[in-house]
Specification:
There is one protein chain. By secondary structure, the chain is of the alpha+beta class. The protein has 6 helices and 9 strands. The termini are far apart. It has a 7-stranded mixed beta sheet, with helices on both faces. A two-stranded antiparallel sheet has the order 3-4. The protein has helices at 17-30, 56-59, 69-78, 91-103, 138-142, 154-168, and strands spanning 4-8, 34-38, 46-49, 66-68, 82-87, 110-114, 122-125, 128-132, 146-152.
């Protein structure tokens, strides 16, 4: 399937958060694999509104009404997915990183790498990938004029995962 490029901004109805939510929930449903989130700036954006119970079957025995990005990444790790996050050491990222560290334990395959030279923006998992100008922040998802490409593409996703492993697994 060819990729789809979205250009988002505050005035358009196009938003990347619904695509990201769908990809992460689909990954949660299948479990396993490896997910990388690489972004210079990350805030703990709310991705799932489950007030009506629509996602109960995916979110566990005691499903939350709302789930943030960190919640979904922790759920993925608990479901057996290797989760890797690469971001800068910055005050803007601190709450997100701290929530991940607080929610993780030694049984989870979740790793956070802080790299002050990272500028790339990508979220990739088995067979799917998001790339573009968008940081994973409230403004990046809902306000800024951004470009993001989403593709269901085994080859591109696998290539990105291999490159990320090479760059950050030995750090």
């Amino acid at each position: 399937m060819p990729g789809r490029t979205l250009r988002t901004n505050a005035r358009s109805a196009l938003r990347a958060d619904s695509l990201i939510r769908t990809a992460l929930l689909a990954q949660l449903a299948t479990g396993g694999g490896e997910v990388w989130l690489v972004s210079a700036w990350i805030s703990d954006v709310e991705l799932v509104d489950n007030c009506d119970g629509s996602f109960d079957y995916l979110l566990g025995e005691d499903p939350p009404e709302r789930s943030r990005l960190s919640d979904l990444l922790l759920m993925l790790a608990r479901a057996g997915t290797r989760v890797r996050v690469v971001t800068r050491t910055a005050a803007a990222n601190e709450a997100f990183v701290q929530r991940l560290r607080t929610g993780a334990d030694a049984t989870l395959d979740l790793r956070i790498v802080e790299d002050d030279d990272v500028h790339e923006k990508c979220l990739a998992g088995p067979g799917w990938i998001f790339q573009g100008s968008m940081n994973f922040t409230r403004n990046g998802l809902a306000r800024n004029k951004e470009q993001i490409t989403y593709a269901v593409d085994e080859r591109s996703a696998a290539q990105a995962l291999v490159e990320f492993q090479h760059e950050w697994e030995q750090v």
